[in-house]
Design goal:
Elements (H helix, E strand, L loop, with lengths): L4 H22 L5 H5 L3 H11 L1 H19 L7 H21 L5 H28 L8 H7 L2 H20 L15
Helix pairs in contact: 1-3, 1-4, 3-4, 3-5, 3-8, 4-5, 5-6, 6-7
């Protein structure tokens, strides 16, 4: 059983909406967005569950909608945030196609960690080379990685639990269905 195209579109729309709502809840606390990374959660989930094209679109649309509706992220940060989130959604979806460890959690963690690194590197390069030329290309290490450690930990705990729960509730297809015995 595969997830239908319509379900993927609906989940992508919900993911983009969560990119607006989740940061609003966290921004009540100063710098909480940079610490807890709430926008990353729905984008990573979308890529994992719906595949790379949907994750990519969610990563582009989510930050844009959030910026237009709430001014978070601010216009100066929006382009690099769109690059980062689009990379998260795209890379998680691609990794779930190519990584087949035989263990769902293994696949999830490899996909998420690879996407988190790729997204941060691409956003850092985009900032340094395109959006704010002349800035240190590795400034993202402290701003995106060190500051965001609590958010990364939350993502690594929460996202596999959400995927597991949705699979158990039969809202997502099983990644490794058990073979049926004929006889």
């Amino acid at each position: 059983m595969k997830m239908s195209y319509v379900k993927k579109l609906v989940f992508t729309a919900v993911s983009a909406a969560l990119c607006v709502v989740l940061p609003m809840a966290f921004h009540a606390v100063q710098n909480a967005g940079a610490i807890f990374l709430p926008m990353h959660i729905p984008v990573l989930l979308c890529g994992l569950m719906c595949g790379w094209p949907f994750g990519f679109i969610s990563g582009l649309i989510g930050p844009l909608l959030s910026s237009l509706l709430t001014a978070m992220p601010p216009a100066a940060m929006l382009p690099s945030m769109m690059v980062e989130c689009a990379a998260y959604g795209c890379v998680t979806g691609l990794m779930m196609v190519f990584v087949r460890t035989g263990k769902v959690f293994g696949d999830l963690y490899i996909s998420m960690i690879t996407a988190m690194l790729a997204g941060r590197v691409l956003a850092g390069l985009a900032k340094a080379l395109v959006f704010t030329p002349g800035t240190a290309p590795f400034a993202w290490v402290t701003t995106s990685l060190i500051t965001g450690i609590p958010g990364i930990v939350i993502q690594l705990i929460l996202i596999p639990l959400v995927v597991f729960t949705l699979t158990k509730a039969k809202l997502l297809p099983q990644r490794y269905p058990k073979e049926q015995v004929h006889g």
